[in-house]
# Entry
Amino acid sequence: MKKKPSRKRRKLADWLASEGTPVFLLDAARRIVFFNAGCERLTGWSAEDVVGEVCEYTTDGDQTAPRTLTGVLCPPPEVLHGHVAQVPVYLPHKTGGTRARLLHFFPLTDPAGQIEAILGIAAALPEAKARVEPTLAQRLHAELAALRLSLRQRFGNQSLVGHNDAMRRVLRQVHLATHSEVPVLLIGEPGTGKEHVARVIHSEGPTKPRAFVPLDCRLLPADRLAEAITRAVDGEHPETAAAGLTPGTLYLAHVEHLPRELQQQIAQAFGADGTPNRHRLRLIAATTVDPWTAREEDRLRDDLCHLLTALTIALPPLRDRLDDLPYLAQAFVESFNRDSEKQVGGISESVLDQFRRYNWPGNLDELRSVIQEAWSACSEAVIRPTDLPFRFRTGMDAQTVGPPRQLLPMPLEEYLAAVEKEHIQQALERSRYNKTKAAELLGITRPRLYRRMQALGIEDRED
# Structure
């Protein structure tokens, strides 16, 4: 005869299924296996929507996607190492807005100590006096999610991260560019993310259904450039034709290196002479130099320069975005977490301190590369200084070495006297203050040595 469940078990099952306390359960692979009615009421998502989804320690500004919620429900990596954690979060609601809650994570282990599941409970935030201080990684994870949600609501995309004045201006200009078809010129140092911004403009603008065609005018030979540009302008490109897509945006990196005859072709194709642009193609170019200086140096044709500068977007170097640096580092960490069994919470305080003191000559590209290597080397919940690549540490050391000491000019007589005094002292020390031997080393007479010692204030010791 099958034994009936005890009253306590029935009460536990009823409590877990109730709308009172939001409770959820993840398996060892971070897959949601239980999502009770309390969670449904709190988030607006049904169990059917989220059960089976894998939680990754990432952020996403799209509130219509389940991964926005699962990124918040993902336990910080220290829980995956067997530690209990309490994390203040902003839980996104499916219909919009967020709910501030404190998530309690409890790792459930088997007799051998291996994690079998993770229990999560959402509770109200405690009073300020009893409030739990999150770690740097937990705080950046929550703040990055809120920032991306805010940027998406205001500018329509969440892949660009920035909140300082310079980047807010860039975001406004990008938003303007996505609602027009005028040519765009992106200006910035190497590694500042010009191609990424170009792809955002393409993917959020009217050319989104068609292909993005990137060409590097500095690397490709002239004949290859000419062929690719002609195909793109004519609506065909070998790389996109195979995928069944027609070109939608032509992106010219290092446009100042484009041969002049091809500059003329681009200017004519896109209506620089006043004729309307007959091609269903968007033009975006990028450069690391001032376009008007390039025009004066005959590196850019006058008509192409005027065509491209209808809308210019200047991307600031990373050293001018130190306020954004923590969020950019967190965003790169989370990008490597995506679709990976390994999950890293973020960076430690000591790593952030080093990042803030570094000059970042390679800008965003260098930061991404450093984070990628450190993420691969990391074996703990967060990236620590020992995880940073050797080339970054040597770069830090090189930047701490100051410039050569500049000697201030001094009167010639004073300088010559100092040199003579040092020279005589060396001779005296070498001869153990034997004046006769010292005079011989210096090639002068002993009486003259005495006179110079007296004039220069050199102490006279016994032979």
